[in-house]
Design a protein that fits this description.
The protein is about 40% helix and about 20% strand. By secondary structure, the protein is an alpha+beta fold. The structure holds adenosine-5'-triphosphate and magnesium ion.
């Protein structure tokens, strides 16, 4: 009997992980330009952290959470998303204090867990790269975060993206819209899906997000939030749009977009693609928004926030589909071929010296014949092949071949171990004389 990974999970194997590292490094570089610093929070939290923040009627909390009672009878959940844990840490560590710069800007990357039906770009353990910016209500921060998201995707050479934005307004806008929506939906009560029947009074906005075809038909003619915004909320949204235009960032306003989490208000946004690798129609790669009440809801002061999360698996599917494979073929600086068992101590010493000097180096450990070792050197794309045989062993020398130019020289082992740059210079000189 063999073991298999749990449904909806994936092994990221050597080779693939090179691309993951590149994605993570690129994200770190972009975030550094914007002065975002990394935060690392636990992979599990008290269940309440998520139910309080995402909302009991959200799909994430009601259907997708991996939760359990631990041996100490605590209700624990594997994190389904990053923001709630970051906000919990922000509050618990009093990062809102006057000694901290505002906005307080952080990013995170790592696995998230949701019990969903696995398909292309949808797993049960998946990875997000996300950011949060706390402490400013300025619409310029919404736009800075959106611009950073667009820049990040540009760095990955992803094209054909669509930025959709909407506003959920402030509390007063929400209350007015809530009422209008309930008034509109109530006459359709019997036609709604069972889920939406429950949501209608608990959280009518959630009905807008329903994936049920019949619900979507009804929702098409529902009132739109833009008609219920307070003046303040209108100004915020209009400023966001103006600032996006001033940065030449194209966008579409999507009045039906509500996002799957309850904590959002004012600006919400999604970056989508219609690339076939992610299924039919438009799929969201990156999503975020403003969440001005969330810090307070998790026990902190009244402090605004805005952020986004990028799905790494979806990003990689897109990168590979668009051939924007940015990972350079790995190069091995030196492969050391040893001929005869008695060279083993010397070749081990040599690869270690080369590594000490900062080079990538390797040798054979399976007592293979020279021919097989040379073959390996080629396969590993070695820049230099160093050979030590009987005569080199006796002379305390090594034979070095530059695989690009084909130039070969024999040098003292001490020179090779102490000054690889000098060896390279000599190879170069030979090449120029030839
Ligand atoms: P969807 O509508 O596709 O379920 P969502 O609204 O639940 O997405 P968010 O909670 O906004 O997604 O998460 C942000 C991003 O994380 C998504 O745009 C997507 O790229 C990624 N993501 C979310 N859930 C999954 C999953 N189960 N597997 C892989 N990536 C995911
Ligand atoms: Mg989802």
């Amino acid at each position: 009997m063999g073991y298999q990974k749990p449904k909806g999970t994936a092994d990221i194997l050597p080779g693939e992980s090179d691309q993951w590292q590149l994605v993570e490094k690129t994200a770190r570089d972009v975030f550094a330009r914007y002065q975002f610093k990394e935060i690392r929070t636990p992979l599990f939290e008290s269940y309440d952290v998520f139910s309080r923040s995402s909302g009991d009627t959200s799909d994430i909390v009601s259907k997708e959470m991996y939760d359990f009672m631990d041996k100490g009878d605590r209700h624990i959940a594997l994190r389904p998303e990053g923001t709630a844990g970051v906000v919990r840490a922000f509050v618990e560590n009093k990062l809102y204090g006057p000694e901290h710069q505002k906005p307080y800007k952080v990013y995170y990357m790592g696995p998230m867990f949701r019990y969903e039906r696995p398909q292309s770009g949808r797993q049960r353990q998946f990875h997000q790269i996300g950011v949060e910016s706390f402490g400013s209500e300025s619409p310029a921060v919404d736009v800075e975060v959106i611009s950073m998201a667009m820049r990040l995707l540009r760095e990955f050479k992803i094209t054909d993206l669509k930025l959709a934005i909407n506003t959920l307004g402030d509390a007063a806008s929400r209350a007015a819209y809530h009422e209008a929506l309930v008034n509109y939906l109530e006459p359709h009560f019997d036609e709604l899906s069972d889920d939406s029947k429950v949501r209608l009074h608990k959280n009518p906005l959630r009905v807008l997000d329903s994936k049920d075809a019949k619900d979507q038909e009804i929702v098409k003619d529902a009132p739109v939030i833009l008609d219920y915004l307070t003046d303040e909320a209108k100004v915020h949204f209009n400023t966001v749009k103006t600032l996006l235009e001033s940065l030449n960032i194209p966008y579409e306003v999507d009045t039906e977009m509500v996002r799957g989490l309850d904590y959002y208000n004012h600006t919400i946004f999604e970056i989508m693609t219609n690339n076939k690798v992610l299924g039919r129609g438009y799929t969201t790669v990156l999503a975020g928004g403003r969440y001005n009440g969330l810090v307070e809801q998790l026990g902190g002061p009244d402090m605004p926030g805005v952020g986004f999360a990028l799905g790494v698996e979806r990003l990689l599917l897109l990168m590979n589909a668009q051939n924007s494979d940015l990972v350079a073929a790995p190069v091995l600086d030196a492969y050391v071929v040893g001929i005869g068992a008695e060279t083993s101590a010397i070749t081990l010493h040599l690869v270690e010296s080369l590594r000490e000097a900062g080079l990538t180096a390797d040798r054979d450990y399976l007592d293979r014949k020279p021919k097989a070792q040379f073959k390996t050197a080629n396969k590993l794309n070695a820049q230099f092949v160093v050979t030590i045989g009987e005569s080199e062993l006796a002379d305390k020398t090594a034979h070095v071949k530059d695989m690009t130019s084909g130039v070969e020289i024999t040098v003292p082992l001490t020179m090779l171990e102490a000054d690889f740059a000098a060896v390279k210079n000599e190879l170069k000189a030979q090449e120029e004389n030839a």
